Amino acid sequence: MSDQESTSERGTRPIRVANCSGFFGDRLAAAKEMVDGGPIDVLTGDWLAELTMLILARQRMKGGPGSGYASTFLKQMADVLGTCLERNIKVVSNAGGLDPEGCATALREKADELGLANLTIAYVTGDDLMPQLPDLQANGVQLTNLDTGEELADVGLAPLTANAYIGARCITEALERGADVVITGRVTDAALAIGPAAWWHGWSYDDALAGDRHSLDALAGALVAGHVIECGAQATGGNYSFFTEVEGLEHPGFPIAEVAEDGSSVITKHEDTGGEVSVGTVTSQLLYELGPPAYLNPDVTARFDSITVTEIAKDRVQIGRVHGELPPSTLKVAVNTVGGFRNTVSLVLTGLDVQAKADLALRTIAGVSLEQCEEYYHLPGDLAALSTLDVTELDVTLLHTGQRNPVNLAQAQSFLRITAKDSDPKKVGRPFTSVIVESALATYPGMFPTAPPAQGTPFGVYWPTTIDPSTVTIKVHVEGQEAFEVSPGGYDGPRPQWHAIDPPHLPVYQTQRTTTAGLVQFGLLVGARSGDKGGAANVGFWVPEMTDGQSDLRYAWLEGWLTADRIRDLLPEADPLGVDVYRLPNLRAINVVIHGLLDRGVAETNRLDPQAKGLGEQFRARLIRLPSDLIPENALPLTEGVL
């Protein structure tokens, strides 16, 4: 069956929604691979991570064409636009970033160059709140930080961007009015799948807001499918804990969601492509950047504690019908601000006496001891107040990577990382670096930095907040038609009380069944997927299916063992922070959110892992004491470092 015939099939079969980008910078060849690799109905791509909006803002400040949108989108479209038009494949992308109109104009020029004058392009505006931000604040809109509770007006930060996360109705309406390509700004990631699925199956957003069960569940199912495929190859084996079991990861295929009329879906990929689609890879991605089980979206709230995941064939995983609830009454807003200036110097510590060398360097450079730095780890402002450096924030990290009996230089080296921040770029420039340079011949033996001294660089602060949907005006612009308004999403009417989701029947682990316990690495019991949620980090742990049939029993034990306090034991730096633990027995999973671990987000944090990408693997490397009857057969006997 040709793709040319696919439009007449609307509503008679699942819609095939393919992803070709998980971030600004993803594989350029992916669009062509997805279009040429097999039948699809819609090609989508997600370019807008939270950090991307700040990157685009900086590009826009420099000026020039294409500075406000993802220019790589145009390169991909040059490879596939003609084929998409010929085969009636719709394209839906948020690559418009801060300038959807500019992106649409550039694509129109590209299409004309390719002789595709009959291509219809639509773009969506209104998510950008910067033009009205002063009026909103003057009218009492507080823009309270969801992570910290601070008010934007009280902290003296100047916004660079302010974009509302809008729903999928704009995409659905653009497709309904004949658009071949829909370019948006800051829609939610999952909207890229919800919008086409609603168009294809004729779902009603208004019926969902009226409480219609079918409509709510259908939209919720599309949201879940969109969440799985939005990050590209992360659903097909990328960033997967058990990656050694996956073939072809040198070049994994990108995912496809086949979304049925009731919102259930099958996650798959094109045949003969690398990677895999399995219960494990899909579960891992379901847990990515997740908070509570009630996953909020402007169009619907999806209950992740209702999801069932089943492998029905090789590289085909079915997600059952998802329970949907009404969307929240507010829209999330991503504000990016100018935070100040930062400078980081890394000093090499070679061989013996690493602690003493670091202590001498710190007392010389900043007038503080290593012990004080460790004490004020989460209080960089307080540490700066103790130091002799005239900066507002000082952060110190000692990377004790050297080995006891090094046989080469790499094994002998540790590193002292010192970061200074201030609103004045001069203070983090020469006054900061000169004291380091001047101590080069008068401090610990073997002192040298990893790079020459440099000036400070600007950093941004991510500011998550919410706004009333009534203040957001969304317009859809379809070529050859008059622009029209659509709802941005959200709901502020009466809400019925939904019943709690009944958990699946799982065995209860009886602790008295065993009298001994052994040490294993946590990662032999669980997989993990971690990421950033503004200033918070999330880690989703799940117990994979194992050949010994003990998976349900291991999860039953894990539910009682993995508490907020246990998380703090496993990750001592989380000790002063808020920790939320959410249990998802339907997925044999537990999701953990650690508040404030990333300070005020990826652009501002001083952490070596600013997006918490490796946090899950950090947890999996810890040794735990597991009851002997639950120790996997592949576990090696260990004797130290237990929790």
Beta-strand content: 15-25%
Q: What distance lies between the first and last C-alpha atoms, to the nearest angstrom?
A: 58 Å
Low-pLDDT segments: none
Query: Can you give the mean pLDDT?
Result: 93
Physical arrangement of strands within the biggest beta sheet: 11-12-8-7-1-2-3-6-4-19-20
Task: Name the overall outline.
Answer: globular
For the secondary structure, the number of strands is 26
SS summary, helix count: 19
Structural category is: alpha+beta
Helix content: 25-40%
Biggest sheet: strands, sense, closure? 11 strands, mixed
Radius of gyration: 26 Å
The structural domain count equals 3
Question: In brief, what are we looking at here?
Answer:
By secondary structure, the chain is of the alpha+beta class.
Report on this model:
It is a single chain. The protein has 643 residues and is α+β, with helices and mostly antiparallel strands. 27% of the residues lie in helices and 23% in strands. The protein folds into three domains: 14-127 and 165-330 and 468-477, no CATH class; 334-462, Alpha-Beta Plaits (2-Layer Sandwich); 511-630, no CATH class. It contains 19 helices and 26 strands. It has an eleven-stranded mixed sheet, with helices on both faces. Strands 5, 14, 15, 16, 17 and 18 form a six-stranded antiparallel sheet that branches. A four-stranded antiparallel sheet has the order 22-23-25-24, with helices on both faces. The protein is globular, with a radius of gyration of 26 Å. The chain starts with 14 loop residues before the first strand and ends in a 16-residue tail after the last strand.
